[in-house]
Amino acid sequence: MLKQMNQNQLKKTQTKQSSLTQSNYYDLATDISWQSPTFFKKFLSCEAETMAEINGNYKPDFKEALLVGNYLHSYFESPEAHLRFVAENKWDIFAKKKATKKETAEGLSKNGQALKNNLTAPFEQAERMISTLASDEGFIENYQGDKEVIVTGQIDGVNWKGKVDCLNLDKGYFIDLKTTQQLDKKYWNVEEHGWDSFVAHWNYQLQMYVYQQLILQTYGVLCTPYIIAVTKEKIPAKAIISIPEERMLEAEDQIYEMQDHIEDVKAGRVEPTRCGKCDYCKSTAKLGKIVSMDDLID
Ligand SMILES: [Zn+2]
């Protein structure tokens, strides 16, 4: 059985919820008060980098990937949300030579679609992914419910936050939209000495476990998690993916096992460990001890 919280914890969580909004959800300040699947996974991959990011000393370079993801998500949220997102990020979305400031602003105010033929390559790809999903009856039928729902709660005494792409409480499920390179791409797992799918590689089951718990705590409904994935291939492929119970339990175990240590690091009680491999570690590293040629690879 998945572990559940008591009523006192539930009340504490609900009073906290009022201070998280759509406009401050991604602010770093909220990542200090709340744990999230994104930051928990960052801590698992490199504590030093994540602490530098939380303290405002380091900004990882994933702006484009984030923007492309938000472009797709906002499209399926609502026409207003998409138009707002496009207007706010027009300098990254449109080819600069073709879209002058004036043209961009006018084009957007007249019609959100007006400048779609001036998209930069990553957003042209996002458009292909959007059409792949938007023209699929199964997707339209299933991607029904409240969009971008902020949920909060506690897991083993720690405050967590999450933002659910599509929540259907009536039918008891939620969906997270993911873009990925290829549905059947294999990732080598060094610890397990085996291949992982993209879902396991990016530890999406942990995100699904957390969302399931936070939805349960916020609304009292145990929902089934699904991922709808669409690929970044020239002709995008798509799939609706379930998460087996044992994967959810695996995620739960990982949180219960690692969370205390991560909280200690976050609070400054324990020095963050350097992974030695990420951009942050590389950019702050000094030549150290001599490494044998036979120790270079795992
Ligand atoms: Zn690192």
Automatic annotation (TrEMBL):
<keyword id="KW-0547">Nucleotide-binding</keyword>
<dbReference type="GO" id="GO:0005524">
    <property type="term" value="F:ATP binding"/>
</dbReference>
<keyword id="KW-0378">Hydrolase</keyword>
<feature type="domain" description="Putative exodeoxyribonuclease 8 PDDEXK-like">
    <location>
        <begin position="37"/>
        <end position="284"/>
    </location>
</feature>
<protein>
    <recommendedName>
        <fullName>Putative exodeoxyribonuclease 8 PDDEXK-like domain-containing protein</fullName>
    </recommendedName>
</protein>
<keyword id="KW-0067">ATP-binding</keyword>
<keyword id="KW-0347">Helicase</keyword>
<dbReference type="GO" id="GO:0004386">
    <property type="term" value="F:helicase activity"/>
</dbReference>
<dbReference type="Pfam" id="PF12684">
    <property type="entry name" value="DUF3799"/>
</dbReference>
<dbReference type="InterPro" id="IPR024432">
    <property type="entry name" value="Put_RecE_PDDEXK-like_dom"/>
</dbReference>
<dbReference type="InterPro" id="IPR011604">
    <property type="entry name" value="PDDEXK-like_dom_sf"/>
</dbReference>
